[in-house]
Write a structure and sequence with these properties.
With 136 residues, the chain is mainly alpha-helical. The protein contains eight helices and no strands.
Length: 136
């Protein structure tokens, strides 16, 4: 009986795993803190890109699910187009915008994610990061 209890104790201890914590918090805490620090926002385009864009885009010119984002500022329409498209691409596509429809068609009609939480400054930081020479 004593051996049985001992084995159960070992099994419980070896199978019980706590969520991984770091000295400075979780990974999500670090991303949020870095991405939302207005003093270093221009340096955080990489963090924002990895958190919101990297699952479908490369920061280079290479195509993934979506187009490569290096050089995007030279390709996209001006004004607030980039903010409107990134926050709510469906409405821009449904409006008949030629460039948005073309991207949609080139991506096999794959829906682009909506990112209404991103500020203009954060969107600019992402695109500035992707347009940097190290991303070519």
């Amino acid at each position: 009986m004593r051996n049985y209890i001992f084995l159960l104790l070992i099994l419980f201890v070896s199978c019980h795993e706590e969520p991984k914590q770091f000295v400075c918090g979780t990974c999500e805490d670090q991303i949020h803190a870095a991405a939302h620090n207005p003093d270093t926002l221009s340096c955080n385009g990489k963090v924002l890109f990895r958190a919101h864009c990297a699952s479908c885009h490369f920061a280079t010119t290479k195509r993934s699910t979506g187009p490569g984002l290096n050089g995007a500022l030279d390709r996209i329409p001006g004004g607030n187009w980039k903010y409107e498209f990134i926050r709510n691409p469906d409405s821009v596509i449904k409006s008949g915008d030629g460039y948005a429809v073309a991207i949609f068609e080139e991506s096999n009609k794959m829906q682009h994610g909506k990112f209404p939480q991103l500020t203009n400054e954060e969107i600019d930081a992402i695109l500035d990061y992707c347009n940097a020479s190290h991303c070519q």
